[in-house]
UniProtKB/TrEMBL annotation:
Gene3D superfamilies: Carbonic anhydrase (3.40.1050.10), STAS domain (3.30.750.24). Belongs to the beta-class carbonic anhydrase family. The chain crosses the membrane at residues 39-59, 106-128, 140-162, 182-205, 217-238, 258-283, 350-378, 398-428. This is Transporter. It comes from Streptomyces variegatus. One of its GO terms (molecular function) is zinc ion binding. Residues 37-393 form the SLC26A/SulP transporter domain.
Length: 789
């Protein structure tokens, strides 16, 4: 086996696979099949989408059939072309206010034309590959926009719940509410209350029977129950009216002021795109919580998702449907129902088409008050208390509040513009609000800088520093996360001058004792700023003992040209001495805290024992951050195959069940000696401890040798050699072994644990994260934009 593998990896630029001369011909095209999980998931999504689509169409004032058209097109077009396979698209509650305003201003046919133009704009944005740029919008603005839309929906639908007709804006609806309460219709209110009660109580049914019944969507039960109750009671209420499809209104030429139409297109494009892209990212998080699914589905391709949404809006607008976006409720239901591919989304669209054609008599039994109550509940849920707590914790509550009030009072585009302006104002306020104080305590002068240190604060910083007497001991505490070049030069120039005059300067970060200034390097020192935690002694040229004595009677020595310190270099003692002298004073308070509180790491980091792989360096971690397990080849034995060595399994169980880590990372690296040994291993021979351990890597070797599977890639390129290919494949294989452990499988099912793959290229000093787990795996560079997204 090992003789064939290097041949396979010899040409990394090869793009096509060749078959050996005597191998059988490749199999014919596979027959199209739909997994049973996709069928059941599509039914669950369809049962949710049907009443919601009608309710959203009712809330916008559009023809009710427009909601069904948008649901069908969202499933078939966006589901087939989009970049997020498990995201379900259709008429979204977040678009209700925008669409209702367009219909009131321009009429239905022009609104359809605006939807088409918005789809074309999305296609253009997708071709420009700016999808991730849309995620740069502050979450406080996005959540504020959705909350404002939710308030607008809830207030408007409340009038229908009470048996009346909503007004055009929130202020008008609020002013008309007292009169509506005085004239409410008891029959409409009773149907609405029953709908809301079923929505609230159905997911909370207790017992085993409750678990079975909860599989039926609450939205369907609420609308069906209210419809049945209204029919049995003989209540006379306005009901769903679906005219003949032959009379269905299609798109027309846009009519209205050009600037107004442009603003309408931009608003629709913005809301559709941001909601869809945020939904795709949220679906990725849901997929990551299902064992084995991320490797099959892969991460969302946001630019392709934007293209799919654009195509869906073009088709929906052309057929007289509502604007389309990714819908969180249906997408989460799709994932939780067990969907494994985009077939579930597309099949749900087919079911909507069948219902729209064959179930019209049944749909026309639904009271409008029940649909209004359903949509009102969705609007209330869009005002998330969790989001409010999050933005408050990050001190962005003003951005959230201004955006929400702007959307409620003025409109979506105006509210978002106000939110952006508020976010910029908050950022500038944080940038300019810097407090600099000076005080003396026990003979030591303390200069405390609180906030961002920019050129705007340089005059105040200079005044505070000049209050320090010459030759005094000084501590400069920087309590902020940013320092620009002007402030850095001012601080460094003063530090050099003050030190030359006999004073001492210690510059610390947010926590006292965390030094952030660069160390002063002597002429014989080659240390770098990360020296304090690296076992590198800065004592100039090292010496080795030689025969003879010096004139003073001491042992004679001479410089060691190898830099190794010789056999008796006492490296361990020297390193401990350097730690006690330089590093211990800086970390003593943090280690004392950890000693009191115990360890609470957030990650289990499983990597190779290679001496060049420094986990704290490549992860920028410190004491207490990582629970690290190292072995030869970063191997995870399958349960039952340890043969007396349970150390790795014990560490996994302890990390997951006792320490409650939230993620496990398997990290391979370039030039791995264990992978080279695997490739060179021959059957038979002495069963040494190393060979017995490396047998846990044989599944990785077999996986790599399987020619039916694609190669792993590293930042889009093929592996350089067989060792790198095996190292990438081994990371993916060991993740599969991890899932076989009971504690890991249980935590994955509960959604409390994530698994990650990582590869560190020593020569490039570059870390790569596993993004797709097919066969050898797809590893991509870590970028700040990915972390933000």
């Amino acid at each position: 086996m090992s003789a064939c593998v290097p041949t396979r990896a010899a040409d990394p630029n090869r793009t096509e696979r060749t078959h050996p001369p005597h191998s059988p011909p490749p199999a014919g095209p596979r027959r199209f099949r739909i997994a049973g999980a996709d069928v059941s998931a599509s039914i669950a999504v369809f049962l949710i989408a049907l009443p919601l689509s009608l309710g959203i169409a009712l809330a916008t004032g559009a023809p009710l059939q427009a909601g069904l058209v948008a649901a069908a097109v969202g499933g078939l077009v966006a589901g087939r072309l989009g970049g997020s396979p498990l995201q379900v698209s259709g008429p979204a509650a977040g678009l209700t206010v925008v669409t209702a305003d367009l219909i009131q201003r321009y009429g239905w046919r022009t609104t359809c034309a605006i939807t088409i133009l918005a789809g074309l704009a999305q296609l253009g944005l997708g071709c420009l590959r700016v999808a991730r740029g849309a995620l740069a919008v502050s979450p406080a603005i996005v959540h504020g926009m959705l909350a404002g839309i939710g308030v607008t929906i809830a207030v408007a639908q409340l009038h229908i719940v009470l048996g009346g007709t909503p007004q055009s804006s929130v202020p008008d609806n609020l002013r008309a509410l007292p009169a509506q309460l005085a004239q409410m219709r008891p029959s409409a209110v009773s149907v609405s209350v029953l709908t809301l009660a079923l929505l609230l109580l159905w997911p909370r049914l207790p017992g085993r029977a409750g678990r079975l019944l909860r599989k039926i969507p609450a939205a369907l039960v609420a609308v069906a129950g209210a419809t049945a109750a209204a029919a049995l009671a003989g209540l006379r209420l306005p009901k769903v009216d679906l005219p003949s499809w032959s009379n269905h209104a299609l798109a027309g030429l846009p009519e209205g002021p050009v600037l107004g139409l442009i603003a309408a297109v931009l608003t629709t494009t913005l809301v559709c795109s941001v909601q869809s892209l945020l939904g795709a990212v949220a679906v990725d998080k849901l997929v990551a919580g299902r064992p084995g699914l991320p490797a099959r589905v892969g991460r969302s391709r946001l630019d392709r998702e934007l293209l799919g949404q654009g195509a869906a809006n073009i088709v929906s607008g052309s057929l007289g449907g509502l604007p389309i976006a990714g819908v969180a409720v249906r997408s989460s239901a799709n994932v939780h129902a067990g969907a494994v591919s985009r077939n579930s989304t597309m099949l749900h669209g087919v079911l909507v088409v069948i219902a729209a054609l064959l179930m019209v008599p049944v749909l026309e039994l639904i009271p409008l008050a029940s649909l209004a109550a359903l949509v009102m509940a969705v609007g209330i849920q869009m005002v998330s208390l969790n989001h409010i707590r999050t933005v408050t914790r990050h001190r962005e509550v003003w951005v959230y509040a201004v955006t929400t009030l702007g959307v409620v009072s003025l409109g979506v585009l105006e509210g978002v513009a106000l939110g952006i302006a508020m976010a910029v104002g908050v950022a500038l306020h944080r940038l300019t609000r810097t407090r600099i104080t000076h005080q003396e305590r026990e003979g030591v002068h303390h200069v405390h800088v609180r906030g961002q240190l920019t050129f705007l604060a340089v005059p105040r910083l200079s005044r505070a520093l000049h209050l320090v007497p010459h030759g005094a001991d000084t501590v400069v505490e920087l309590d902020g996360s940013f320092m620009d070049h002007a402030a850095y030069e001012t601080l460094q120039d003063w530090q050099k001058t003050h030190t030359a005059q006999g004073g001492t300067v210690q510059i610390t970060g947010r926590h006292p004792g965390t030094r952030i200034s660069e160390p002063q390097a002597g002429p014989d020192c080659r240390c770098r700023p990360w020296t304090p935690w690296r076992n590198h002694q800065c004592h100039g040229p090292r010496s080795v003992p030689v025969a003879g004595k010096n004139p003073d009677g001491s042992d004679r020595s001479e410089p060691d040209p190898t830099g190794t310190g010789g056999a008796n270099g006492h490296e361990l003692a020297r390193g401990i001495s350097a730690f006690q002298r330089n590093t211990a004073p800086l970390v003593r308070s943090e280690l004392a805290r950890l000693a009191r509180e115990g360890q609470r790491p957030s990650q289990l980091f499983l990597t190779c024992a290679d001496s060049r792989l420094v986990t704290s360096m490549i992860t920028s971690s410190g004491p207490g951050d990582l629970f690290v397990v190292r072995n030869v080849g970063n191997l995870v034995p399958r349960p039952g195959e340890e043969s007396g060595d349970d150390s790795v399994a014990a560490a996994i169980e302890y990390a997951v069940d006792v320490l409650r880590v939230r993620s496990i990372t398997v990290c391979g690296h370039s030039g791995c000696g264990a992978m080279q040994a695997l490739l060179n291993s021959e059957p038979g021979g002495a069963r040494t401890p190393l060979k017995r351990w490396l047998r846990h890597g044989l599944p990785s070797l077999e996986r790599m040798a399987d020619k039916s599977l694609p190669w792993g890639t590293l930042a889009g390129r093929s592996p350089e050699d067989a060792v790198e290919l095996l190292s990438l494949t081994n990371v993916v294989q060991q993740l599969e072994h991890l899932r076989a452990h009971d504690s890991v499988a249980r935590a994955l099912d509960e959604g409390t644990l994530e698994l990650h793959g990582m590869y560190f290229h020593l020569g490039e000093a570059e870390a790569y994260l596993l993004t797709e787990r097919d066969a050898g795996g797809v590893f991509d560079r870590v970028r700040e934009s990915d972390l933000t997204a």
